[in-house]
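ingest -> validate -> predict -> emit
validate: passed (alphabet ok, no gaps, 71 aa)
predict: started
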Amino acid sequence: VGDMGMESVPVPVDPGWGIVESRSHQHAAFGYRFYPHLLQGEGFFLAVFRSRRPSTPAHLQPARLTEAVMA
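emit:
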């Protein structure tokens, strides 16, 4: 989305659930509206984003040695 290196991830939603899918005007990002008059509860908004940049999980990254460890 924009210059943040993210992409919007659509979430499969069953029409019977009462969740309203929306798209942003600027980036066409998916969003999901949980309106209180359509669902039980107070209502909220949900969007899912994924980084487009490759990343390495922390447990696979090489360890950094410090002076204290090397001494």
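Residues 42 and 54 are 37 Å apart (CA to CA).
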